[in-house]
């Protein structure tokens, strides 16, 4: 089995977790480029002389994609996410409903997420959408088939896992599952924002999450790592399925 390393950089906005997944040959991908992580990611790439292949997004919420555009440009790699969430990249606050701007201008600091971004010293009006986007999957599918992404030496299985958003995706690499806001240690992502759906999330948990091998390491979009065996016993949202 190839040796892989996960380097974690935590954004100051909502504690969103950015992961740099590094293969033993120096290939790497960046998963969930939250606000303010670009300089730290570029420092890791330069220090370790890595060869980036893509910026992946587990879903299109802006706390996971704020730096996707600048980082994609700096690394000269595409932003990759499910097609059903691609529309969010063009309207990062407006697609979040009450958590975003609720119809106000995108730079309006009265929106909760805009306030959280402004509190870190980042101007909420400075958002730059990615110029290179390579979506996979199809819009409108309740659940798409797996998509295999060959990224440098890394083979990443993108498994559609809607419910938190329409395009939420698990990225599976060897024993690792990057779950974004679908599954956390002891909890799951909310379903009350635009594009979320509780019934769809329950299907995802039942048919996608619980069928992963128990030894699978869960690397969520917020909070500590876990594993499927632990979550099946201690996560109340899985234990009741």
TrEMBL record:
<keyword id="KW-0378">Hydrolase</keyword>
<dbReference type="InterPro" id="IPR001279">
    <property type="entry name" value="Metallo-B-lactamas"/>
</dbReference>
<feature type="domain" description="Metallo-beta-lactamase">
    <location>
        <begin position="15"/>
        <end position="222"/>
    </location>
</feature>
<dbReference type="GO" id="GO:0016787">
    <property type="term" value="F:hydrolase activity"/>
</dbReference>
<dbReference type="GO" id="GO:0046872">
    <property type="term" value="F:metal ion binding"/>
</dbReference>
<protein>
    <recommendedName>
        <fullName>Metallo-beta-lactamase domain-containing protein</fullName>
    </recommendedName>
</protein>
<dbReference type="InterPro" id="IPR036866">
    <property type="entry name" value="RibonucZ/Hydroxyglut_hydro"/>
</dbReference>
<keyword id="KW-0479">Metal-binding</keyword>
<dbReference type="InterPro" id="IPR051453">
    <property type="entry name" value="MBL_Glyoxalase_II"/>
</dbReference>
<keyword id="KW-0862">Zinc</keyword>
<dbReference type="Pfam" id="PF00753">
    <property type="entry name" value="Lactamase_B"/>
</dbReference>
